[in-house]
Amino acid sequence: MAATQEEIVAGLAEIVNEIAGIPVEDVQLDKSFTDDLDVDSLSMVEVVVAAEERFDVKIPDDDVKDLKTVGDATNYILKNQD
Amino acid sequence: MSKIKPSKGAPYARILGVGGYRPTRVVPNEVILETIDSSDEWIRSRSGIETRHWANDEETVAAMSVEASGKAIADAGITAEQIGAVVVSTVSHFKQTPAVATEIADKLGTNRAAAFDISAGCAGFGYGLTLAKGMIVEGSAEYVLVIGVERLSDLTDLEDRATAFLFGDGAGAVVVGPSKEPAIGPTVWGSEGDKSDTIKQTVPWTDYRDGEVAKFPAITQEGQAVFRWAVFEMAKVAQQALDAAGISSAELDVFIPHQANERIIDSMVKTLKLPESVTVARDVRTTGNTSAASIPLAMERLLATGEAKSGDTALVIGFGAGLVYAATVVTLP
Ligand SMILES: CC(C)(COP(=O)(O)OP(=O)(O)OC[C@H]1O[C@@H](n2cnc3c(N)ncnc32)[C@H](O)[C@@H]1OP(=O)(O)O)[C@@H](O)C(=O)NCCC(=O)NCCS
């Protein structure tokens, strides 16, 4: 079953917490991965791979650079999940 | 049909000695910053690299190899005449014919050992080790010298922000010989030529000769694609090598991945869920990425500093341009 927006944000929060050690409650739709959440471009690759597994989506390298905020990633997953 | 007598090899093979050579010139990040817009902090945080070694004119591929091999031979407690084959993996020896392995075999004083070069990028050490093991078990050589050697500084575009800080020079060598017990596990190896564009030489030499490009060829890469592949696909290969050898991560003492980037190493350790008890090679910090030389150089350093000891069980994995990879479990010399 496809995940809802809420479930995706909660899932991303857990992933970001695991990879960058940021408290889950700080991971909000308007937060930028690099500027607010201490996720640099290489950690972002790890976030993306974890999100792919968790939400059953494919996020090609070329699309990763467009995912600046948690909201961008959430929308991408909402649109592309199976 | 006449009967052909089969050759007779050793039951198993093992690494008996290791040696390394690092060029005398140590190059800190400040030198890299003279040609690219970056910072020491960025380079350290994205790659772990603080310094690397660059070879001078005398530190040729052959000269560095002879130095590293001499140490490996002494460490193995054999003499050069006992070496039956010399396998050299390099992508940065700029004279293709004859193979540099022949010059090295001669300078070391081997007794006309078979000698040849292979090209398998950053997986070259594992490819060479696998060939060596086959020769020893099959019986075409009693002792085989496997050398990984690079002068990547000759193939680095110092104005390329994505690679200028990554590469270094050096040589690492091991002597592989007969063993009563298995001490080199099954190799898990392969190639993914559909991804050949992710790490490659910019243009063929002939394009430069013909004036089609102004810059001497260099290694370029799609950094994030390589990072993703290295961390996630190579962790699977590393796990397969452990499984093939029948070694659990709890039984593992040492992890020596190709020293490409410390961030790749960190992520692999996490993905593989290696326990804290496993010693992890992080030679990349002071050596940079030396391609085929990185695993034996890191092995030598871990043994020299006492972080690893003879008899330890180590997982080695190399991966790089091709894309190619090779992983196996070995007993340290
Ligand atoms: C090379 C590598 C460290 C680059 O990191 P990256 O995160 O992919 O870098 P990107 O090119 O995506 O750039 C990310 C940001 O850093 C900046 N940047 C890139 N290179 C930089 C440099 N040398 N110094 C400072 N900043 C740099 C970019 O401009 C970009 O900034 P922006 O987000 O504000 O636009 C990394 O991709 C890597 O190591 N990959 C594996 C390579 C490897 O090991 N290859 C050999 C395998 S055998």
UniProtKB/TrEMBL annotation, chain A:
Assigned keywords, A-Z: Cytoplasm, Fatty acid biosynthesis, Fatty acid metabolism, Lipid biosynthesis, Lipid metabolism, Phosphopantetheine, Phosphoprotein
A Pfam family assignment: PP-binding
Single GO MF annotation: acyl binding
Domain Carrier: 3-81
Domain EAL, residue spans: 1-82
Superkingdom per UniProt: Bacteria
Principal subcellular localization: cytoplasm
InterPro entries per record: ACP, ACP-like_sf, EAL_dom, PP-bd_ACP
Pathway: Lipid metabolism; fatty acid biosynthesis
GO biological process: one example: lipid A biosynthetic process
Annotated protein name in UniProt: Acyl carrier protein
Organism: Streptomyces phaeoluteigriseus
From TrEMBL, chain B:
E.C. designation(s): 2.3.1.180
GO cellular component: a single term: cytoplasm
InterPro entries reported in the protein's UniProt record: ACP_syn_III_C, ACP_syn_III_N, FabH, Thiolase-like
Residue ranges occupied by any Beta-ketoacyl-[acyl-carrier-protein] synthase III N-terminal domain in the UniProt entry: 116-193
Region spans: ACP-binding: 259-263
UniProt keyword annotations, A-Z: Acyltransferase, Cytoplasm, Fatty acid biosynthesis, Fatty acid metabolism, Lipid biosynthesis, Lipid metabolism, Multifunctional enzyme, Transferase
Coiled-coil regions listed in the entry: none
Localisation: Cytoplasm
Pfam hit, one: ACP_syn_III
CDD domains in UniProt: KAS_III
Residue numbers annotated as active site: 122, 258, 289
Comment block on domains: The last Arg residue of the ACP-binding site is essential for the weak association between ACP/AcpP and FabH.
Family as reported in the entry's similarity comment: Belongs to the thiolase-like superfamily. FabH family.
Function summary: Catalyzes the condensation reaction of fatty acid synthesis by the addition to an acyl acceptor of two carbons from malonyl-ACP. Catalyzes the first condensation reaction which initiates fatty acid synthesis and may therefore play a role in governing the total rate of fatty acid production. Possesses both acetoacetyl-ACP synthase and acetyl transacylase activities. Its substrate specificity determines the biosynthesis of branched-chain and/or straight-chain of fatty acids.
Protein name: Beta-ketoacyl-[acyl-carrier-protein] synthase III
